[in-house]
Design goal:
Largest sheet: 3 strands, antiparallel
CATH superfamily of the largest domain: Citrate Synthase, domain 1
CATH architecture of the largest domain: Orthogonal Bundle
Radius of gyration: 25 Å
CATH topology of the largest domain: Citrate Synthase, domain 1
Order of helices and strands: HEEEEEHHHHHHHHHHHHHHHHH
Number of helices: 18
Strand content: 5-15%
CATH class of the largest domain: Mainly Alpha
Number of domains: 3
Structural class: mainly alpha
Bound molecules: carboxymethyl coenzyme *A
Distance between the termini: 70 Å
Length: 436
């Protein structure tokens, strides 16, 4: 038996029999995958197009090889470049993690201080972009403002079109990481009708973000250190999540050779959706609707009847507790201790307790995801609900950039162009409108 097992392992191929023809094919296996194009040789007759796989939502299709982020969804493991997310959240800083994701290794002390000062030197946006932002309607959703402003950045930096030049890439990476919090803060101030605060590059990344949003000319103003730390850690926890919807969008648009601003505007647009980064806003709306612990049983009945979803629960990849959610729960306790509690946290904790015991959720492996507690923290820090996804976008930016950079260096990659199974009409003749 052992011999037989060894023989099979050494083959490292997959044998497929097409029962329509009785023909057998041997397909090479590499990294536990077969190449989809190897299936094309499987035909009933020579004129056939050949076999394809059908995979809506890409649930079982690897679109790339990557060395950036490792997720083991069954065991709730997340690592950036091999480092466990828990260690990075505990010991690192957001800009250090950004460097790690983009360039593959933790920076030396010198590299880190140069990197931090370079990013912070790129925090000012062009005055014309600021003026453009001021033309949005007073109640424009900040995600709409963010998406449009990221796209607009490409018009200020046309050299970014040289997407394969590593120096040009590095420059756009600094610009994007530096300017994103400024755009986000301006969007926030615009929404609440307050003057914009220009960046303060002597502050740390998350501190500067809080400052730009918060400062109102107080003579003794100081950034709340608990808030700045919480934001920095939240950014780390959101920094990458391998081939999720927005990242795949960034790679997909990038695959056409578009500049990183245009690609990232698309990624941010994907993040805006309530099934992705918009879920943290949806969680707060859900908690507001539930209002009180006593209303939870009735809400759960609606979830089970599939009238509503329990927002902040479930994940395509995690079939276990999302490791980010565990850590975020801890930050929620710290921030709420600072601001003096929030009844929404009690509702959320009770929802989680019930869901983790309920057969409906247990059978479907539905656990809290990153968005379940993040919204409560943002709300406790005073962010309006429609800013939540913007904060997610700032955190995710290094991941988008790292994945885009990796894409541009991957010689195997081509323009993203999935196939379809056509089930429409066969050829038919046009009928003039008067005859229909
Ligand atoms: N509440 C109730 N039922 C759920 C939920 C939920 N949140 N999520 C999944 N299910 C059920 C679903 O009805 C289905 O049941 P059945 O097999 O009986 O029809 C089963 O679980 C599988 O669901 P699915 O929709 O096939 O799973 P998916 O992998 O396509 O969807 C998801 C993943 C995240 C879109 C989904 O779980 C969801 O809508 N969750 C709520 C929104 C949310 O919190 N999104 C944030 C995701 S994490 C942050 C990010 O990546 O952006």
């Amino acid at each position: 038996m052992v011999q037989l097992w060894k023989y099979h392992m050494s083959k490292n191929t997959l044998t497929v029999t097409d029962n329509r023809t009785g023909q057998t094919y041997e397909l090479p296996i590499e990294n536990d995958t077969i190449r989809a194009l190897d299936l094309r040789q499987i035909k009933v007759n020579p004129n056939d197009f050949g076999m394809m796989t059908y995979d809506p939502g890409y649930a079982n299709t690897a679109s790339t090889k990557s060395t950036i982020t490792y997720i083991d969804g069954a065991n709730g493991i997340l690592r950036y470049r091999g480092y466990p997310i828990e260690q990075l959240a505990e010991k690192s800083s957001f800009l250090e993690v950004a460097y790690l994701l983009i360039y593959g290794e933790l920076p030396s002390a010198d590299q880190l201080s140069t990197w931090q000062s370079k990013v912070m030197r790129h925090t000012y946006i062009h005055e014309s972009l600021r003026q453009q932002m001021q033309t949005f309607r007073y109640d424009a959703h900040p995600m709409g403002m963010l998406i449009s402003s990221i796209a607009a950045m490409s018009t200020f930096h046309p050299e970014a079109k040289d997407v394969d030049d590593p120096d040009v890439q590095d420059k756009q990476i600094l610009r994007i990481l530096g300017k994103l919090p400024t755009i986000a803060a301006f969007a926030y101030r615009h929404r609440i009708g307050r003057p914009y605060n220009y960046p303060n590059s002597s502050l740390r990344y998350a501190e500067n973000m809080v400052y730009m949003m918060d400062y109102m000319n107080q003579s003794n103003y100081e950034v709340n250190p608990v808030f700045a730390k919480a934001l920095d850690v939240l950014f780390i926890l959101h920094a990458d999540h391998e081939q999720n919807c927005s990242t795949s969008t960034m790679r997909g648009i990038g695959s056409a050779g578009s500049d990183p601003y245009s690609s990232m505007a698309g990624a941010a647009a994907a993040l805006y959706g309530p099934s992705h980064g918009g879920a943290n806003q949806a969680v707060i709306e859900m908690l507001n609707e539930i209002k009180d612990v006593k209303n939870i049983p009735a809400f759960m009945e609606r979830v089970k009847k599939r009238e509503v979803r329990l927002m902040g629960f479930g994940h395509r990849v995690y079939k276990n507790y999302d490791p980010r959610a565990k850590y975020i729960k801890k930050i929620a306790d710290e921030v709420l201790a600072e601001v003096g509690g929030n009844p929404m946290l009690d509702v959320a904790k009770e929802l989680e307790r019930i869901a983790l015991e309920d057969d409906f959720f247990v059978a479907r492996n539905l656990y809290p995801n990153v968005d379940f507690y993040s919204g409560i923290i943002y709300q406790a820090m005073g962010f309006p609900v429609d800013m939540f996804t913007v904060l997610f976008a700032i955190g995710r930016a290094p991941g988008w950039l790292a994945q885009w950079r990796e894409f541009t260096q991957d010689k195997e990659q081509r323009i993203a162009r999935p196939r379809q199974v056509y089930l429409g009409e066969g050829e038919r003749n046009y009928i003039p409108v008067e005859d229909r």
